[in-house]
């Protein structure tokens, strides 16, 4: 059982089931520029758009291509749905006890969260809020500070290797969900579970929380 004060969540494939949606976004972008989706598929999850584009070629990491991806994403993200049991898990937390640290742009991530029925928390760190995206620890460090705690007092939830590394490097206790990657790809996490249905969270009298896996 883990005791903590606050929770920080990634969005894509953690709170919102965007796996197929994100794949489709990048497939559509690939069609517009003649890039092989197979060649770039390993880079598309858990990174800022600019960094994904840079992995393909530095020439693609420009405002024109970033805006093209965002435009496709805004349309596709309206189809997003919540990850199984994510709503019930969040319902056990006080509104000021959790926040978001995502590699997604604000408009895109907000669209997916609202489309899948989530209320937006007060603390939300988007791609625009950081100089370095995941796997750099900056997103989770900023989220923890915005929640008025240090990272080691937080439990972070992630689904991608880059996200897990980001949270771990920040100092968070890191839970990896098997929603988008294999277990061996998430080995750096402190805890790996199939999903929120395998987790129980209880609020203590002092305002802290206990998290247990089953």
TrEMBL record:
**Which molecular function GO terms apply here?**
sugar-phosphatase activity
InterPro entries reported for this sequence: HAD-like_sf, HAD-like_SPP, HAD-SF_hydro_IA, HAD_2, HAD_sf, PGP-like_dom2
Coiled coil where? none
Domain of life the protein comes from: Bacteria
From the Swiss-Prot or TrEMBL record, give the protein name: Haloacid dehalogenase
Q: Which organism is it from?
A: Vibrio campbellii (strain ATCC BAA-1116)
């Amino acid at each position: 059982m883990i005791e903590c004060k606050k929770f920080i969540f990634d969005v894509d494939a953690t709170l919102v089931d965007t796996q197929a949606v994100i794949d489709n976004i990048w497939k559509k972008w690939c069609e517009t520029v003649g890039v092989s989706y197979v060649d770039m598929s390993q880079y598309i999850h858990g990174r800022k758009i600019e960094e994904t584009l840079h992995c393909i070629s530095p020439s693609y990491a420009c405002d024109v291509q970033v805006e093209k991806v965002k435009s496709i994403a805004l349309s596709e993200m309206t189809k997003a749905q919540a990850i199984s049991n994510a709503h019930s898990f969040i319902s056990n937390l006080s509104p000021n006890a959790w926040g978001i640290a995502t590699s997604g742009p604000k408009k895109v991530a907000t669209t997916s969260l609202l489309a899948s029925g989530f209320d937006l928390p007060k603390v939300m760190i988007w791609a625009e809020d950081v100089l370095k995206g995941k796997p750099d620890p900056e997103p989770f460090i900023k989220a923890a500070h915005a929640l008025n705690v240090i990272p080691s007092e937080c439990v972070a939830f992630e689904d991608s290797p880059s996200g897990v590394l980001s949270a771990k490097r920040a100092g968070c206790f890191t839970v990896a969900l098997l929603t988008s990657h294999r277990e061996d790809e998430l080995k750096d996490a402190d805890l790996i579970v199939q999903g929120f249905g395998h987790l129980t969270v209880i609020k203590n009298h002092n305002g802290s929380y206990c998290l247990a896996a089953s």
